Amino acid sequence: MATGTIGRIVQQTKKDLAEKVLGQALGLLGNDPDRNAKYLLKAVDHVASTEQQAVIRDFFHEWLGEGYPGREFLGRILKNTHPNVRQRYIARMLVSMLFSKKEVLERHEKWGDVEVPGLMLISPSMRCNYRCEGCYAASYSRKDDMKPEVFDRLLTEAENMGINFFVVLGGEPFIYPHLLDMVAKHNRSFFQIYTSGFFIDQKMAAKLVELGNVAPQISVNGPAEFTDASRGKGAFKTVMRAMDNLREAGCVFGFSSLVTRQNVDVICSEEWIDMLIDKGVLYGWLFLYMPVGKDPDMDLMPTPEQRDKVRQVMRHCRRAKAIIPLDFWSDGALTGGCIAGGREYFHVNHRGDVEPCIFCHFSTHNIHQCSLKDALRSPFFSAIREKQPFSYNTLRPCPIIDHPSEMWNIIEEQGAKATHVGAEDTFTTFMPEMKEYAAKVADIMDDVWEKEDYHEWGPKWTVLCRVPEEKLEKRREEYQRAHFCACGMSKKKAE
Ligand code: SF4
Fold this sequence. Notes:
This protein is of the alpha/beta class. It has helices spanning 3-28, 33-47, 51-63, 70-80, 83-111, 148-161, 179-185, 202-211, 224-231, 235-249, 264-267, 270-279, 304-320, 332-335, 372-376, 379-387, 404-414, 431-451, 458-465, 469-483, 491-494; strands spanning 119-122, 165-168, 190-195, 214-219, 254-259, 283-288, 324-327, 345-348, 353-355, 362-363, 365-366, 417-418. The strands form two sheets. A ten-stranded mixed beta sheet has the order 7-6-5-4-3-2-1-8-9-11. The longest helix has 29 residues, at 83-111. Residues 1-6 have low confidence and may be disordered.
């Protein structure tokens, strides 16, 4: 047996063992929060041995310590989730975090020039039962769905490369008739499903718990007046009902919210966050309105000031409340910047087009004509990865909204084709406004970057997020040159 194969088996055995240790730890915990925290930390200490694992271990020690919300969060997991879900979803996710770097190194050894991300997003169907304003779901029919054998092949190819975390989107994923069969078949992987919650009745919630390796992410854009305004009357009630069903069944679930200029205040309010906690939500993603697709409305984009507010509120929530909300943009500081283009994730749409990001509707490869491996090592994806992080200041990480000219250059140079009507408009018709927006964001976020503790994250990106040290140094120098005079004085102040 080749040394590499033995190494992989040893690694898999260690991973399985770690999953068992953490799963048992989570299954055995009782009602005493202090004892639980101690027990879980012991299990994490037992598993953590590498530099990367040590950083994650330290984070857990702090978060579960006095004055932090980790213990309450843990209490919520124990109160609300079924042991099957703890073992098959939570323990697996923890282990995936702890072993990600080792696995990445191993994948490199196996796949050579292919950068294998940790996560694949896939939209098998664009159909939806709702008819939201500005959405095209109504124009899709069953024949536009991804064939189940293609979906299965994609998951299998991804798993063979070492990817075992899948996010399913749409359309409404629960409308896709093969969804749960796929989740059941690929039971060594875990799935997050972005849904309106419409199809999550008690029976469905019980089924999800039985599967264990799946967590719905319920889309909700604020209280009834906001959620109903986009989806139709009664949509908010449907969300609340789905959350109740999931909580009562013992499922892990999160929220996802589209943040616009109009709903940002309510979504950032204490009452709203507390309501989500009461409903049983454990984590969630905030997605800023992106001016992508046909006829985007620039006025819906949160202003740069609002964007900073989201950053502050989410940071505060993670330190003070027993929920983990994340902001897809300003939390770029946690990931070492943009994760698209297969650095950490990519998206495959219902037609099989492999796109760098869920918001970047351009592609050069389609999985009907190539393997997933070939798509991941495409020059288009490589060019994106080469430029990441797009700035040393990862509070403005996004090549679409923070560095639009750079993204458009890559798209043009690589001859990537639009996969959605109007995809070019963001970078052509709206380019002047996009640049103006990016400049205003830079004004605010560069100040925040200087004043708060974000630079301290820099070295961690190398350990946690695979940002090579030399590249990081290069970006730091570029940033310094752009912002400071040779004497060290801020250029802004000198003006
Ligand atoms: S392209 Fe923008 S939205 Fe997509 S992963 Fe990168 S930073 Fe996030």
